[in-house]
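Box S1 | Example of a co-folding query
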Amino acid sequence: MRFERVRLENFKCYGDADLTLDSGVTVIHGLNGSGKSSLLEACFFALYGARALDETLDEVVTIGAEDATVELWFSHGGGSYHVERRVRVTDDRATTAKCVLETPEATYEGARDVRGHVGELLRMDHEAFVNCAYVRQGEVNKLINASPADRQDMIDDLLQLGKLEEYRERASKARLGVKHVRDGKRELLDDLAAQIERKAAQGLHDRLNALQTERKDLEAEIERFDENRQEAVKTRDEAAAVLEEHEEKRERLQSLETEIEELTGTIEETERERERLGDRIGELKAEIEEIEAERDDLLAESELDEPDEATVSDTIADLETRDEQLRDDIEDHRVAASEHTSEAESLGESAADLETRAKEKRQEAEELASELAATREKLAQRREQIERLEADIEAKREVFEDAPVVVGEASDHWDELADELNEARERQKELETRLEAEQRSLDEAEQLLDAGKCPECGQPVEDSPHVESIDEHRERIDDLQDELVSVRQRRERLEDDVEDASDLVDRENELRTLRNDLENVEQLVQEKEDGLDDTVEKIDRLREEAEELDAEAEAKREAAEEAESAAAERREAVAECNEERAEIGERLDRLEAIEETFERAADREDEIERLREQRTTKTELNDERRDRLSDKRDQRDELDAEFDESAVEQAREEKKRAVEYIEKVEPKLEELRAERDDLLDEIGGVKQEIEELEELRERHEDLEETVERLESLYSETEQLQEMYGQLRAELRQRNVESLERMLNETFDLIYGNDSYSRIELDGEYELTVYQKDGQPLDPEQLSGGERALFNLSLRCAIYQLLAEGIEGAAPMPPLILDEPTVFLDSGHVSRLVDLIRHMHDLGVEQILVVSHDEELFGAADDLVMVSKDATTNRSTVARKDPDEATREAVADAATD
Ligand SMILES: Nc1ncnc2c1ncn2[C@@H]1O[C@H](COP(=O)(O)OP(=O)(O)OP(=O)(O)O)[C@@H](O)[C@H]1O
Ligand SMILES: [Zn+2]
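Box S1 (continued) | Returned holo structure for zinc ion
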């Protein structure tokens, strides 16, 4: 078996790691805590699960992660295998989320199935695996430190010797079981023998013989009595038959007498009936004569050519057809009459309707005519109003004839004048102000001049160059006064004009109102006049329509009268028909009466016929009865002659005797038969007992055979038990010898005969080391390093033995050593290297060694470096060339 690849995800200190492994020696190297052991544990975990690690499931999951996965690919016996386990932590609880083992034959799922199958495949459970193949860190000395008994168990288990002990125990149990069954059967056998003896002592066959003889005698006696009885029965029955025959004859005679009497009576009765029938026929003939007389009377009343039945019924049929015809005619006339009547009614109604409508039209025309008159009057009034308004307007217009403006411009005219007036007023005010100022300046100038100063600059006047300014002032004042006068005049004129213009504006407004009014009235008049023609036309039309409607009504009335007279005609026709029907009815009644007389006569003829037949039948019947009567009388006479009283008397005697004998013999027979039944019961009982005895003997024989078989089985199981014991002792002895030899070879190889001569291993796996001087030494007394090497030797020897001891496919797992050098100095480390190479040479396919010691590089075919990132705390694996690593290590050592 070989691990080929391991892949980890969140397993302990690993984030993601994937490592392929080859055959040969692989050294896994790294610093303390880098994750070396964890890598091996992962492989172990993959195979056996967390239980094998002495850890709980959650401890394998990287702290802080939710799930961990381990996958291991391995080859075994030529096949490829893959196992995958996934652990999930939820709510602080870890569970196995997936556990699958794929083998070339099948896929197993679930932790239990996978563990079981791996155990079967490797032929070892996880304990055996650590005892043999996997030397865990710190467990180097496990085997030596164990007590001999524990060691014996471990090694026996590994070599499967434990199984033999198990089989021996099973054989012992089976032997005890067989013994228990055998003893039980023996007891049963003794019991049966005793029963057989008791039964045999009873002389059953002699008893049976005696009983059979007794039975035969009894049977003979029963037979004799039975024959006698049968004879008596026969005699009795014969006599009884004679008596019975006699009795029958007597009864027959009696019944013949009765029959003769009855027949005679019946014949007489039938004769009387025949007479009654004859009477009835006479009565019926008389009735027929009466009916024919009645018919002759009726025929005389009816005017028929031929008075026979066929003519009568033909005539009836004709009359009925006619009647039918009349009924249909009446119906037709009635329908027509009622149709005419309703037509007349509806015509009358529509005439009335038309008259009403004519009246309504006429009335409407009258109303419209009076309305028209009123409207004409109103129009005349309006025209007068128009004339008045036109006169008013003319009057107002005349005002404008002398006015400076035409109608429609008064308002604008007033605005212009008002503006001019304002202007004039302002100009006047301005002139007045300027005049006042000029006057004041003149006054000042005059005062200055008076004071001898220049009126302009106030300087003293020498020559008066400025005096002329006074004149200028005066001139200006004059001008201003002139202008002021003309302005005042203009203003006054304008004030008058404005007043006139205002009047004109008022007139103009009045004129506009009047014109509006005029327009309205004219429009009204126009409208009214327009309507007038329409109204006149309408009145004419209404009157015409009324006349038309009246004419139409007249026509309807005439039509109604016609319909009424048609209806009357139809009603008359109905009356005629009814009359004829009444007549026909009378005739029919008569004819039917005649017809009935034919029927009645025929009925009576029929009855006469029937009665005559009855009479004939009765005559025949009586003839036949008379024949029978004479037969019976003959029979009676014959029977009378046959009677023999003496024979009857003898039969009575014989019967009496036979009956008496039978009465006596039957109880006797009964008694004998009961006796015989008892005897048969007794015989049956004895036979039963004999059968039981036979059966007991058979059972006894069978049981004897069973007991014999059990005896031999018992001795077989005893032998088996012994054989397993011996086998185990022998095998162990052989194993111990081989183991001792291999241990010595291995130990020799790595310890090289320095101070110890050999190791002894006894049957109980007790180990003793002998020194060169022959002194024995307990292995525990060895030094730490020696002990480690000694133990590794023992492990290797066991591994070797196991490998040799198992035939066929080598299930041997890789030899795994975790830190085997802990207790070793460098000299011993090189011995360890030798041991590893030795194991490899012996054919161990794959050896995995975990070590932080670089000295082991020399033994490696492959080197795997494990390191841990200081910041992420995650481990990684990497392969490295072992030779290069060795050179580096040597170089490092040189620099130190
Ligand atoms: N569940 C876990 N999550 C994270 N880290 C873990 C977990 N379990 C263990 N570790 C860490 O894994 C590291 C590796 O331990 P391991 O025993 O594999 O180291 P080693 O290389 O064999 O060391 P040494 O040489 O001391 O034997 C340890 O530092 C440990 O703290
Ligand atoms: Zn370790």
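Residues 422 and 875 are 120 Å apart (CA to CA). The chain has a mean pLDDT of 88.
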